[in-house]
Write a structure and sequence with these properties.
Layout: H1 3-8, H2 12-17, H3 33-42, E1 47-49, E2 55-57, E3 61-63, E4 72-74, H4 132-143, H5 147-156, E5 164-167, E6 178-181, E7 187-193, H6 200-209, E8 213-218, E9 227-228, H7 229-240, H8 246-264, H9 278-281, H10 284-292, E10 295-296, E11 308-311, E12 318-323, E13 332-338, E14 344-348, H11 350-356, H12 361-373, E15 386-390, H13 391-396, H14 398-409
Parallel strand pairs: 7-8, 8-9, 10-11
Antiparallel strand pairs: 1-2, 2-3, 3-4, 5-6, 6-7, 11-12, 12-13, 14-15
Length: 411
C-alpha cells in the first residue's frame, strides 16, 4: 500500500500520540519505526511503498534510495543502520503531513477552562535529578538567566551571543543535555555535559544524528572538551564580584556545591562495586534472580558468553549484569537494577540494549514489548535514558522478566 495514502487514513493528532509523527514538524524519524510497523500490522498491511522504490515492510526491511547513509537493509538484523535512515530526505510522497502546521515556541497564556495548553515541545522537563550530572545541568540552566554569564558562555563556545540554551528534547532517538537555538528559534548546536572526561562513543552517536555542531563540556580543563565545568565555575566567581544580586549569589552557591562535590571530588571509585547484602538477597526480586539464574558474585571477574553477574554500588540496591563483548566494564552491562533502596526498578533503553547485545535484536524486541506492556516503553527512550517500573509491578511479573533475561544472556 502507498504510505501517504495509509497515513492519510489517520488524524494527525493520533499519529503524534502514537509517536509516528514528531510533535514539532510532523516528521517521521527513528522513533517512528516501531509504532508505524505496529499500526501496519494492526491494519493488516505487510508493506508500505512510495515513489522511486522506497518501501518499508512489517519485517523491518526497507529501501530508501534518497538516503545518504544505507539505502537498503533490515533495521533489526543490520545493527549498524540507524532506524531514522528509513525516512531520511522524506517528502510529501512519503509523509503527507511533512512540514504541515510547523510549531514554533509557544508563549504561555493562562488557559481558559477546558482549554488545552500548547507546550513548547523543543524542551525537556523530566530530568532524573538523582544523578549529579543532571543536577549540575539544571543549576547551569538557571544561571543562563543572567545575561552577562549567558553571553560569556555562548561567546566562549563561538556561538551567537543572542542565542538561547535549554534542556534538549529528543534528537533522532538520542538526547544531548542542551540545545542551542538562534533568536528565530532555529537549532544551531547541541551541548553534552560530563562530570568526568568525554564519552567519545556517545558524542559520535550524537554527531551521526544531526547536521548541527555538537559541543563537549567536561569536568576539568585537562579533559578532552570545548569547555570545562571548572572554567565555568571560575567565571561565575569572577562575575559574582561585579553583579550585586543576592539571588545570583545563591544560584552560584548551589552550582559551587555541586562542582566541589562532584567534579573536584570526582572519583570513579566513589561508590566501589561490592557484593549485595544479605538483606537484599531476601527481597522478592533478588531471591527470584538467585533461584532462576546462575549468578556470579565475584565483583572482579570478567564475564564470558552465557554468564550472569549480580553486584551493587550502594546499600539496598542491586545490578544484574549480562555478558557483552562491547562493554569495557568486566565485559558486562546492567540489564536491570535498583539504586539505593529506591522504590523502582531501572531498565536500560532499547537503543542501549542494541548497542551491547547486537546479536540479540529479536530477543530485545520481546523484552521491549514485555516492559512496554507493563508501562515502561524502553523503545521510546534515548540511548542514555532509563525506564522505570514500580517494584510491585516487577515482583508480580518477575518470572516473565527473568525468562526473557535468560534468553538475552544465553549463548
Amino acid at each position: 500500500m502507498n504510505i501517504a495514502q495509509f497515513l492519510k487514513q489517520f488524524d494527525v493528532e493520533k499519529l503524534r500520540e502514537c509517536n509516528i509523527l514528531n510533535q514539532k514538524q510532523n516528521l517521521l524519524n527513528g522513533k517512528s519505526v516501531d509504532p508505524l510497523i505496529s499500526l501496519m500490522k494492526k491494519n493488516g498491511i505487510n508493506k508500505l511503498e512510495s515513489r522511486n522504490g522506497w518501501y518499508l515492510d512489517s519485517e523491518y526491511n526497507f529501501s530508501n534510495p534518497k538516503s545518504n547513509e544505507s539505502q537498503t537493509g533490515n533495521i533489526i538484523r543490520d545493527n549498524f543502520i540507524r532506524p531514522g535512515t528509513i525516512f531520511l530526505n522524506q517528502n510529501k510522497y512519503i509523509n503527507p503531513f511533512y512540514n504541515c502546521n510547523k510549531a514554533t515556541s509557544a508563549k504561555f497564556v493562562s488557559p481558559k477552562p477546558n482549554q488545552r495548553t500548547q507546550l513548547d515541545v523543543t524542551v525537556f522537563a523530566n530530568e532524573d535529578i538523582s544523578k549529579p550530572e543532571n543536577r549540575i545541568n539544571l543549576s547551569l540552566f538557571g544561571l543562563f538567566l543572567v545575561d552577562q554569564f549567558r553571553k560569556w558562555f555562548l561567546t566562549r563556545l563561538k556561538l551567537p551571543a543572542d542565542a538561547v540554551v535549554f534542556p534538549s528534547a529528543n534528537l533522532s532517538g538520542v538526547r544531548p543535555d542542551f540545545a542551542v537555538h538562534d533568536k528565530q528559534d532555529n537549532p544551531i548546536a547541541y551541548i553534552e555535559v560530563e562530570i568526568g572526561d568525554e564519552d567519545q562513543a556517545q558524542l559520535k552517536n550524537f554527531r551521526n544524528s544531526t547536521e548541527y555542531k555538537i559541543i563537549s563540556i567536561t569536568g576539568k580543563p585537562e579533559h578532552n572538551n570545548d569547555l570545562s565545568l571548572l572554567e565555568i565555575y571560575e567565571k561565575l566567581i569572577d562575575l559574582k564580584q561585579s553583579i550585586n544580586s543576592s539571588q545570583f549569589n545563591k544560584n552560584i552557591a548551589v552550582f559551587e556545591t555541586l562542582i566541589v562535590e562532584n567534579v573536584l571530588g570526582y572519583d570513579k571509585n566513589r561508590y566501589p562495586r561490592k557484593t549485595i547484602s544479605d538483606h537484599m538477597k531476601k527481597s522478592t526480586i533478588v531471591s527470584n534472580l538467585f533461584k532462576s539464574l546462575p549468578l556470579i558474585e565475584d565483583i572482579e571477574k570478567n564475564l564470558y558468553p552465557g554468564e550472569f553477574a549480580i553486584e551493587t554500588r550502594k546499600e539496598n540496591g542491586f545490578s544484574l549484569r549480562l555478558y557483552s563483548r562491547n562493554s569495557t566494564i568486566r565485559k558486562s552491562f546492567a540489564v536491570m537494577s535498583q539504586s539505593g533502596g529506591r522504590p523502582q526498578i531501572i531498565f536500560p533503553s532499547k537503543i542501549n540494549l542494541y548497542k551491547y547485545l547486537p546479536d540479540k535484536k529479536i530477543k530485545i524486541e520481546g523484552y521491549s514489548k514485555l516492559l512496554t506492556d507493563l508501562g515502561c516503553p524502553i523503545g521510546n527512550l534515548p540511548e542514555k535514558g532509563q525506564g522505570r517500573l514500580k517494584i510491585d509491578i516487577v515482583e508480580k511479573n518477575i518470572s516473565s522478566i527473568i525468562e526473557i533475561i535468560r534468553d538475552l544472556g544465553g549463548i
